[in-house]
């Protein structure tokens, strides 16, 4: 039997029993739609989680902090050959020797040293006062750290600062009256802000020291700590820290507060982080967080898909039952087909084709229904959460469901395969009938 003849015969047989075929296909429609909607929901939640995760956009970055346990200290000293920065207090410091070791690791592109201002500080601009932490970096351009500017530049220069996206909102009027509206965030780009450091002597006397700092850049929003930081050159922050504590800083003993390690590609980030952890330091990577999220949502997709597959399993039983009843009704027809020369393979192909056809029809309807339900769920969900966010604050979700092209295609073919498997037993039963017995059947 030619393939085109088989398709025509299958289509004719399904058309003879439209009502029964449609009722049987409804179960496949429900199962396929459930698979598409539930997996789309899991994919949408995964994308929403990764897009709103802090710092997830830079997968080549590793944040390295000093280690704290005695076990880590021993490991670091062993790896570093005595230059690992182990301290008598049990900490493992990020000393210049450690920086050199990390720079020598395969796959490391850049190591940026950071330290923080360890003194009270006030910012003053006109009548407004502000507050923020100050981070010193030893890099000439913050773009090397993966940061970009929404205004101005990311290049570091002496006597200048680059501020985070939300720093202007930290300014307030200290003389504001109770009923006055809050002041508008100041436009700081290109302006000079007065930084005042505050320290206390041993007898409790307050000492102040002021500097004029020009704001040369405002960073683009990162949804991370950079949004609330003021970046300056490392040498200037070092000088301020030495003034605040009254002693010089010895990096060989005290190390740096933090390192930003940039890898050559996201593929090597996890390996580099593992090596740094083995040296006794704490290494945080967005890549590790992303992998954990993806693993969780992969399990969620399997669970959701399994729930839909249960509905398809019920539909498969319905297809098997329909095909079995069809064999009983068409026994003489089967005998006639064999009598005129149809082989067992021909008969089996016809019934398998009919079962797969029911699965395909139901799958097509399920894909259309599931795709439509996903779109409606996305629209309704986004509208609901937008209202919740406007009332309670926070970041609105970017999507509720996500239906990639492969999902409907997979759902369609999966439904057809389920139908094909469901018709396997009835088709084998029809194919093995004895022609003479089938023709005598009433």
Sequence-ordered SSE layout with sheet pairings:
Blueprint (H helix, E strand, L loop, with lengths): L2 H14 L1 H35 L8 E5 L4 H11 L15 H8 L4 E9 L3 E6 L2 E3 L2 E5 L11 E4 L7 E4 L28 E9 L5 E14 L9 E5 H12 L5 H4 L3 E6 L5 H10 L3 E3 L1 H44 L1 H9 L4 H49 L13 H17 L1 H8 L3 H6 L2
Parallel strand pairs: 5-10, 7-9
Antiparallel strand pairs: 1-11, 1-12, 2-5, 2-11, 3-4, 3-8, 6-9, 7-10, 8-9
Can you describe what's shown?
The protein has 442 residues and is α+β, with helices and mostly antiparallel strands. The protein folds into 2 domains: 3-54 and 292-440, no CATH class; 61-285, no CATH class. The protein has helices spanning 3-16, 18-52, 70-80, 96-103, 234-245, 251-254, 269-278, 286-329, 331-339, 344-392, 406-422, 424-431, 435-440, and strands spanning 61-65, 108-116, 120-125, 128-130, 133-137, 149-152, 160-163, 192-200, 206-219, 229-233, 258-263, 282-284. Strands 1, 2, 3, 4, 5, 6, 7, 8, 9, 10, 11 and 12 form a 12-stranded mixed beta sheet that branches. Helix 8 crosses helix 10 (344-392) and helix 8 packs parallel to helix 11. Mean pLDDT is 83; it is low at 72-83.
């Amino acid at each position: 039997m030619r393939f085109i003849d088989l398709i025509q015969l299958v289509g004719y047989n399904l058309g003879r029993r439209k009502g029964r075929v449609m009722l049987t296909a409804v179960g496949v429609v429900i199962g396929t739609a459930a698979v598409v909607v539930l997996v789309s929901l899991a994919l949408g939640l995964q994308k929403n989680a990764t897009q709103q995760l802090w710092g997830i956009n830079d997968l080549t970055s590793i944040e390295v902090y000093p280690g704290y346990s005695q076990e880590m200290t021993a490991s670091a000293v062993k790896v570093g050959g005595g230059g690992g920065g182990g301290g008598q207090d049990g900490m493992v410091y990020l000393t210049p020797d450690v920086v050199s070791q990390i720079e020598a690791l395969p796959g490391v592109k850049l190591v940026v040293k950071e330290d923080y201002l360890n003194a009270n500080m006030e910012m003053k601009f006109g009548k407004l006062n502000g507050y923020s932490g100050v981070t010193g970096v030893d890099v000439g351009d913050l773009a090397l750290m993966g940061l970009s500017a929404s205004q101005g530049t990311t290049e570091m220069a002496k006597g200048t600062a680059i501020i985070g996206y939300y720093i202007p909102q930290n300014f307030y009027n200290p003389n504001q009256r109770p009923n006055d509206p809050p002041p508008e965030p100041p436009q700081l780009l290109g302006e000079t802000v007065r930084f005042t450091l505050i320290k206390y002597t041993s007898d409790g006397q307050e000492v102040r020291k002021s500097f004029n700092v020009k704001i040369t850049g405002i960073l683009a929003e990162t949804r991370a700590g950079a949004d609330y930081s003021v970046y300056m050159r490392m040498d200037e922050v070092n000088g301020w820290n030495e003034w605040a504590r009254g002693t010089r800083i010895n990096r060989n003993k005290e190390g740096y507060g933090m390192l930003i390690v940039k890898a050559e590609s996201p593929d090597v980030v996890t390996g580099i982080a593992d090596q740094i952890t083995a040296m006794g330091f704490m290494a945080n990577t967005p890549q590790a967080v992303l992998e954990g999220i993806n693993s969780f949502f992969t399990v969620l997709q399997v669970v959701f898909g399994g729930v839909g597959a249960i509905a398809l399993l019920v539909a498969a039983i319905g297809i098997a039952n329909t095909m079995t009843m069809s064999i009983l009704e068409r026994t003489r027809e089967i005998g006639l087909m064999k009598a005129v020369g149809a082989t067992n393979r021909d008969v089996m192909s016809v019934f398998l084709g009919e079962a797969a056809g029911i699965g395909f029809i139901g799958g097509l309807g399920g894909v259309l229904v599931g795709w439509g339900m996903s779109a409606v769920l996305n629209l309704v969900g986004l509208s609901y959460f937008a209202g919740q966010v406007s009332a309670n604050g926070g970041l609105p979700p970017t999507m509720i469901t996500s239906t990639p092209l492969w999902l409907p295609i997979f759902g369609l073919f999966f439904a057809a395969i389920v139908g094909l498997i469901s018709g396997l037993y009835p088709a084998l039963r029809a194919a093995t009938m004895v022609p003479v017995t089938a023709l005598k059947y009433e």
